[in-house]
């Protein structure tokens, strides 16, 4: 089975084979690097989640790896090191093929030996190959080859020529025989309908086909390999068109790392924010629970102590107590946002149960991975992560260690029996932070299958994707409860004199009574020594926003995320009918939009207000959720499209909570009459094309979202429509930041319709906009060079005009250029006969990187490179 990313490199190498041995050798090196990274990341993807985060540890290493040596270490660890014990059983074939000792005639040995021979031809010292060798040695040898050639050394053309056949043989043996490349690979892209567009990276991907039809799954857009289930590979980036593949290439600084395409040499930036936590063993959580069962009142319990600063919440406490005390419902769920008080509420009610005779034991299982501390969220090590962890913890609480060491003892089977009938007596099993377990849905089904009264289960969670429980929603504090918390916290921080009554009112109002947010805001007042603007405090609390909302946001459907960012973009109460109509206009996914808005309300990420005069619902985001939503909007690929929706919503006028009863009918009349009523009647979106066109002519950015729809449809007819819509947009705005996006999409539309001239014209026009990143302009130069080389641009006058315009921009911003960028400038100059300029650009590139292959190649062509 073929792998599209590697096939692209082999295709490139085959083309460059006719150029020169030097060029072909370097292409084979690139192919080998892609092979190393693809295999390493594929194996790491087969490492299951565990409490010590072994897969994260290896990805953390690779995102910072500036050389292939770290990749060789990572594959070694994944195959035979600490991480190997967590390999999925489905990956044992790959593990065996790379780890077993092989002899002459086995493909593994022959591949290693050919690579060693290539190193010998290059006079590069490397480790010997014994009579028998495993395939792991191949990664170490290739790392040596890479470092001594492209990385930190230079080779002559003669040596390269002698090594080529051996390197070629080694790579082909590896690629043609390794089991990993017989697996199914695909790029998954979740459409607004909730279904997925599956783009096979291997020859075919039938195991992913179910995702085209079902909407209940939640996979991040990206590259996947199938090991019994789809496994995400975060350090390879592509898109649904599979036009290019970008691999993690080190350069990690702050929250960004470099991604490199070995096919085009283009670069991108990856988000390193998820890899900022150190990979070592994390501290225990403050609510971890005790390692033994202690006597508390009438119960045995390992439940942690209740925090000292707990604020009573009588109504919720009474409701939960009654639910846990009765003999009716087996599973109770506390549902609410992070930091809203679910865990502390549970601990409070459990202390009340100690003195009752309902339970003989209360057992606490903590899956918490973040403690929300007063100075910010802190990552912690979860105690349980899987059914096996839960079973072993319980067995350790009720049995001596010698019993657990008995190989015949099956902890999971034992715990399943105890869920049905506990030997201790009636037992309450408490699962805290349920959403952070390995697979919450499967875990719930497992518990639900075995739990029987009088035993009961209490779950605390931010997410509830399962049914069969009795949910209790935990929302913000009541006004009196919130004021008590403010008073108590202010006294502890000694800031009572800094808090005016109106400031306290505003703090409770804007925090929506969220206890953790209240504590954070008061902490900032203490730090600043004055009553600082609440909006500014929230806006500057990135880590807190992430801790409170990121996990919930990631679980939302694309339509729910779209609704959330749309609300964040318009700081106002929005008529729900208007929001639904605008989003339906944008997505043509009525049911998904309605379900998405409901999920925002269910997860307390949005709030509903009803006008008493007309019984119309208005929806808005709490302050903290709104600030988080603005952050997501800034980096969303749908930002331009969402802004269009926001601008249409603004036509209805702003609304506050105290004026939602004024003029609602007048603000909604035109929208309801022209769109909402017809959509509500079930007619097709196509029937409203003329209405949308009228809106777009008033709000020019509407052409962008229409173009997106047509591009995503994947037909030649709609590509042509997209080009027309983008042209209409650009007639009115061709130089703004948003126009930059329009030019980019237009270039893609021309590419999809095989119009090379139109494509490159769009990207050259985009390059004229000052806000376009320099690497994007360099990528455009690379495209133009490729088009010229492939003789897809016959008109010499047009070619010269495009090259000169692009060169002018590159030259103006050449201080931002790397060696690769200068090589692209040199090629442009050569294409229009400016040989002396080409040499100067190549020399400028070599001044930055004396071993740059591309600049060296240009000088070699011009006869300026000394052997």
UniProtKB/TrEMBL annotation:
Pfam families: NB-ARC. Gene3D superfamilies: P-loop containing nucleotide triphosphate hydrolases. One of its GO terms (molecular function) is ADP binding. SUPFAM superfamilies: P-loop containing nucleoside triphosphate hydrolases. Transmembrane segments: none annotated. Residues 319-366 form the NB-ARC domain. InterPro entries: NB-ARC (IPR002182), P-loop_NTPase (IPR027417). This is NB-ARC domain-containing protein. It comes from Methylobacter tundripaludum.
């Amino acid at each position: 089975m073929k792998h599209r990313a590697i096939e692209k490199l082999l295709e490139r190498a085959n083309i460059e084979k006719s150029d020169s041995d030097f060029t072909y050798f370097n292409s084979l090196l690139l192919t080998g690097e892609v092979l190393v990274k693809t295999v390493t990341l594929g194996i790491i993807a087969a490492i299951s989640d565990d409490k010590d985060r072994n897969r994260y540890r290896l990805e953390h290493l690779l995102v910072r790896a500036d050389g292939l040596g770290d990749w060789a270490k990572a594959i070694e660890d994944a195959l035979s090191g600490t991480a190997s014990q967590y390999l999925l059983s489905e990956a044992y074939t790959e593990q065996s093929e790379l780890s077993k000792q092989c002899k002459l005639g086995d493909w593994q040995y022959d591949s290693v030996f050919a690579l060693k021979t290539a190193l010998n031809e290059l006079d590069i010292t490397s480790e010997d190959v014994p009579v028998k060798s495993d395939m792991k040695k191949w990664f170490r040898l290739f790392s040596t080859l890479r470092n001594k050639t492209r990385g930190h050394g230079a080779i002559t053309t003669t040596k390269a020529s002698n090594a080529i056949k051996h390197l070629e043989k080694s790579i082909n043996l590896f690629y043609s025989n390794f089991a990993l490349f017989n697996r199914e690979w695909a790029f998954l892209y979740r459409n607004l309908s909730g279904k997925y567009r599956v783009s096979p990276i291997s020859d075919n991907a039938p195991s992913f086909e179910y995702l085209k039809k079902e909407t209940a799954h939640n996979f991040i857009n990206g590259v996947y390999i199938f090991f019994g289930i789809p496994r995400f590979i975060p350090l390879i980036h592509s898109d649904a068109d599979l036009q290019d593949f970008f691999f993690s290439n080190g350069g990690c600084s702050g929250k960004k790392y470099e991604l490199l395409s070995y096919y085009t040499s283009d670069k991108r930036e990856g988000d390193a924010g998820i890899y900022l936590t150190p990979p070592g063993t994390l501290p225990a959580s403050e609510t971890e629970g005790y390692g033994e069962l202690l006597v508390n009142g009438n119960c045995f319990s390992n439940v942690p102590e209740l925090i000292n600063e707990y604020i009573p919440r009588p109504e919720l406490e009474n409701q939960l107590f009654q639910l846990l005390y009765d003999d009716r419902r087996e599973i109770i769920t506390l549902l609410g946002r992070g930091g809203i008080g679910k865990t502390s509420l549970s601990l409070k009610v459990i202390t009340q149960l100690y003195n009752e005779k309902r339970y003989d034991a209360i057992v606490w299982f903590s899956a918490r991975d973040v403690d929300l501390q007063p100075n910010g969220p802190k990552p912690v090590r979860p105690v349980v992560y899987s059914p096996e962890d839960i079973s072993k913890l319980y067995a350790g609480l009720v049995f001596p260690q010698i019993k657990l060491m008995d190989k015949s003892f099956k902890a999971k089977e034992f715990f399943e029996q105890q869920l049905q009938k506990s030997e201790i007596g009636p037992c309450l099993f408490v699962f805290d932070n349920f959403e952070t377990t390995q697979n919450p849905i499967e875990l719930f089904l497992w518990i639900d299958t075995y739990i029987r009264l009088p035993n009961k289960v209490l779950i605390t969670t931010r997410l509830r994707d399962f049914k069969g429980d009795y949910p209790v929603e935990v929302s913000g504090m009541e006004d009196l409860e919130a004021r008590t918390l403010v008073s108590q916290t202010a006294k502890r921080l000694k800031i009572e004199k800094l808090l005016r009554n109106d400031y306290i009112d505003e703090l409770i109002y804007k925090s929506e009574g969220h206890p953790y947010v209240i504590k954070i805001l008061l902490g900032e007042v203490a730090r600043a020594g004055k009553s600082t603007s609440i909006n500014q405090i929230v806006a500057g609390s990135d880590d807190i926003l992430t801790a409170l909302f990121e996990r919930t946001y990631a679980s939302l459907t694309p339509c729910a995320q779209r609704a959330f960012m749309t609300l964040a973009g318009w700081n106002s109460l929005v008529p729900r009918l208007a929001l639904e109509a605008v989003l339906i206009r944008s997505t043509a996914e009525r049911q998904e939009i309605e379900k998405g808005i409901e999920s925002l309300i269910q997860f307390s990420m949005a709030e509903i207000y009803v006008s008493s005069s007309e019984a119309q619902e208005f929806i808005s985001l709490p302050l903290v959720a709104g600030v988080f939503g603005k952050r997501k909007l800034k980096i969303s690929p749908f930002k331009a499209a969402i802004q269009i929706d926001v601008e249409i919503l603004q036509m209805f006028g702003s609304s506050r909570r105290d004026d939602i009863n004024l003029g609602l009918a007048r603000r909604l009349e035109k929208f309801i009459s022209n769109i909402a009523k017809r959509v509500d009647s079930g007619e097709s979106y196509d029937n409203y094309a003329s209405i949308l066109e009228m809106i777009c002519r008033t709000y020019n950015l509407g052409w962008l979202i229409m173009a997106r729809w047509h591009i995503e449809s994947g037909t030649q007819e709609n590509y042509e429509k997209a080009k027309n819509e983008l042209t209409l947009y650009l007639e009115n705005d061709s130089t703004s930041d948003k126009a930059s996006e329009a030019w980019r999409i237009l270039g893609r539309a021309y590419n999809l319709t095989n119009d090379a001239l139109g494509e490159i014209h769009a990207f050259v026009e985009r390059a004229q906009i000052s806000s376009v990143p320099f690497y994007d302009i360099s990528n455009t130069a690379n495209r133009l060079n490729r088009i010229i080389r492939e003789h897809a641009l016959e008109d010499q006058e047009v070619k010269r005009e495009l090259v000169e315009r692009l060169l002018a921009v590159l030259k103006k911003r050449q201080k931002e250029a790397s060696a690769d960028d200068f090589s692209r400038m040199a090629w442009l100059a050569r294409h229009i006969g400016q040989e002396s300029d080409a040499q100067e650009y190549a020399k400028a590139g070599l001044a930055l990187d004396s071993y740059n292959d591309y600049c060296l190649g240009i000088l070699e062509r011009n006869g300026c490179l000394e052997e």
